[in-house]
Specification:
The structure holds 2 protein chains of 2 kinds. Chain A folds into 2 domains: about 5-35; about 45-180, Rieske Iron-sulfur Protein (3-layer Sandwich), CATH 2.102.10.10. Chain A contains 5 helices and 9 strands, in the order αααβββααββββββ. Chain A has helices at about 1-5, 10-35, 40-45, 80-85, 100, and strands spanning about 50-55, 60-65, 70-75, 110-115, 135-140, 145-150, 155, 170, 175-179. The longest helix of chain A has 26 residues, at about 10-35. Chain A is elongated, with a radius of gyration of 26 Å. Chain B has 2 domains: about 1-35, no CATH class; about 35-405, Cytochrome Bc1 Complex, Chain C (Up-down Bundle), CATH 1.20.810. In chain B, about 65% of the residues lie in helices and about 0% in strands. Chain B has helices at about 10-20, 25-30, 45-65, 75-85, 90-115, 125-145, 150-165, 170-180, 185-215, 235-260, 290-300, 310-325, 330, 345-365, 370-395, 405-425, 430-435; strands spanning about 35, 235. Chain B has a two-stranded antiparallel sheet. Chain B is globular and about 75 Å long.
């Protein structure tokens, strides 16, 4: 009889296990809100889209917009910058992408990207005429020396990826919805 | 551990209290009567310095929090307000900021002491691991504290260091947004950093209590590495070491005070007196000096290794450089604790110290040219010391003979000294024998 009690799970064992399981689920459910409150809140998410007026950006000029607290680089590219970007063979790139993949068809003079270096998050230089544009006539990140070309592709330095493209669409020739 | 107390309360109230909560007995055992090796040198005093520094940081921090505002619109101004308008705020703020540097200076001496004298070896592994945990908590606390003034270095330091987590495959970006509470470092980030910066020192204090508990199980190590064998090897902690520690604390406070009163900003960075601007990155981002060796190792990895890209590789190396300390007791299997008795170990150890300082220098330089190559060499030696040199030395090294006991080592030293003197004076041996045997 004694061995029987030891080996077979009885009613009481079942109650112990289920009580512990329900307790664990309850504890996890109580902890979750305390953890999730650290994720981006409603006001942060509410700024999820902006409309950018690009009519006043001259040929060759760059302007920085703010979207979700991040700088958005909008560059009105010259025909030479577009031609240079198209001429690069894909084998020469760290994160290969064609120029066409970086812009919207029909609007290839407009390069729109998130201005945050994909290495450790600094803002690359190259938006203002006075700033260095790096070895590939695009952007240069001063923190750890990443060079981006005129299509925002990483060409040299520690960054693993091209500058990220935000979701956007052209509402008209002069108005872009970002986000 | 209750055997070394000579607490015998005679007062009936004390006796009544002792039978219900032996608090005075406990304090007397662990803070006053604790038997401590009589030969421990000045390198052993930095534990007490660290305890004082933790208390100072907590007290000045609580006072600063009464005047600081954790909001991106007001944080920068509130720190300036403390420095310019609050009564004695100039000194309190400087003590807290310089105190962080002095705290790390003391902890590095304390850790190198442990590395040289083999303090991590059995039976003190847990004691050592708790120390590494305290070191990690200190780094997290100081990093978050540096963000609070909301200057350019605060902001971009926070951006770069939180971005380190984005290197984790698959879940990197969700973790990054979770840590920041947004897509970029912003007000939610500042708020939580303030909250955690206030919390962590108390967690450190709790781990310090465990650290001292773990210390008081086997007792202190000592420069010979030979364990205490009899009561003759020890002296009570008070007054012998309370006074010695106090003396070092006073000496330690002299440079500390010089920084606070004459050069409160010399260890900081001028860019942190520019208000944070999320759209402009400073040309050069440099962490505080005490984090530089690890920053240098993060940057040293600028190449891909198999499926690990450079960014993830750097992060693994940076965290690995601290986590490797946790397994050190099982990497260095040499039975001899103290570096004093390990002739082959000594040069490698001092090279390790020099290498650590070189990495500290390199972390502040631009990542280009010769600096990159030296960073790679330094990182390789750092890991090579733990993973290759120490395990091999444990196998091939013949240590010098150890003294029989702590007391014997002191007598030997005394006799050797007397013998030398006798030779110089040309005297006979007989008198020295008599003195030495005393």
């Amino acid at each position: 009889m004694a061995t029987n009690v030891k080996n077979d799970p009885n009613r009481r064992d079942f109650l112990y296990v289920t009580t512990a399981a329900v307790g664990a689920v309850g504890a996890a459910a109580a902890v979750w809100p305390l953890i999730d409150q650290m994720n981006p809140d409603a006001t942060v998410k509410a700024l999820a889209s902006i409309e950018a007026d690009i009519s006043s950006i001259e040929l060759g000029q760059s302007v920085t917009f703010k979207w979700r607290g991040q700088p958005i680089f909008v560059r009105h590219r010259t025909p030479k910058e577009i031609a240079d970007a198209k001429a690069v063979p894909l084998e020469d790139m760290i994160d290969p992408a064609t120029d066409a993949e970086r812009v919207t068809a029909g609007y290839e003079q407009w390069l729109i990207q998130i201005g945050i270096c994909t290495h450790l998050g600094c803002v690359p230089q190259g938006q203002k005429p006075s700033e260095p544009k790096g070895e590939f006539n695009g952007w240069f990140c001063p923190c750890h020396g990443s060079h981006y070309d005129s299509a925002g592709r990483i060409r040299k330095g520690p960054a693993p990826k091209n500058l990220v493209l935000p979701p956007y669409e052209f509402m008209s020739d002069t108005l872009v919805k970002i986000g | 551990m209750s055997s070394h107390s000579n607490y015998n309360p005679t007062n009936p109230v004390e006796k009544w209290f002792d039978e219900r909560l032996p608090l005075i007995r406990f304090s007397k055992e662990h803070l006053m009567d604790f038997p401590t090796p009589k030969n421990i040198n000045y390198w052993w005093t930095f534990g007490a310095v660290l305890a004082i520094m933790l208390v100072m940081q907590i007290i000045t921090g609580i006072v600063l929090a009464m005047n600081y505002v954790p909001n991106i619109e007001m944080a920068f101004d509130s720190v300036e307000h403390i420095r310019r308008n609050v009564n004695y705020g100039r000194i309190i703020q400087a003590t807290h900021a310089v105190g962080a540097s002095m705290f790390f200076f003391a902890v590095y001496i304390h850790m190198f002491r442990g590395l040289y004298y083999g303090s991590y070896k059995a039976p003190r592994e847990i004691l050592w691991i708790l120390g590494v945990i305290i070191f990690l908590l200190m780094m997290a606390t100081s990093f978050m504290g540096y963000v609070l003034p909301w200057g350019q270095m605060s902001y971009w330091g926070a951006t770069v260091i939180t971005n380190v987590f984005s290197a984790i495959p698959l879940v990197g970006t969700p973790i990054l947004e979770f840590l920041r509470g947004g897509f970029v470092v912003d007000n939610p980030t500042l708020n939580r950093f303030f909250s955690l910066h206030y919390l962590l020192p108390f967690i450190i204090a709790a781990v310090v209590a465990l650290h001292i508990w773990a210390l008081h199980v086997p007792g202190n190590g000592n420069p010979t590495g030979v364990e205490v064998k009899s009561k003759a090897d020890t002296v009570p902690f008070h007054p012998y070491y309370t006074m010695k520690d106090l003396f070092v604390i006073v000496v330690f406070f002299i440079p500390f005070a010089w920084f606070v009163f004459f050069a409160p900003d010399i260890l900081g960075h001028a860019d942190n007196y520019i208000r944070a601007n999320p759209f402009i990155t400073p040309a050069k981002i440099v962490p505080e000096w005490y984090l530089l060796p690890f920053y240098a190792m993060l940057r040293a990895v600028d190449f891909d290794l198999f499926f690990i890209n450079a960014k993830l590789g750097g992060v693994i190396v940076m965290f690995g450089s601290i986590l490797i300390l946790m397994v050190l007791p099982w990497l260095d299997k040499s039975k001899t604790r103290s570096g004093n008795f390990r002739p082959m170990f000594k040069p490698f150890f001092w090279l390790f110290v020099l290498n650590f300082m070189m990495l500290m220098y390199l972390g502040a330089q631009a990542a280009e040219g010769i600096y990159v190559i030296l960073s790679k060499v330094g990182t390789a030696y750092y890991f090579g010391y733990f993973l290759i040199i120490l395990p091999i030395l444990a196998r091939i090294e013949t240590p010098k003979p150890l003294p029989n006991s702590i007391s014997q080592s002191i007598l030997d030293k005394y006799e050797a000294k007397a013998l030398k003197q006798a030779k110089i004076q040309g005297n006979g041996n007989s008198e020295i024998q008599g003195k030495g045997g005393k």
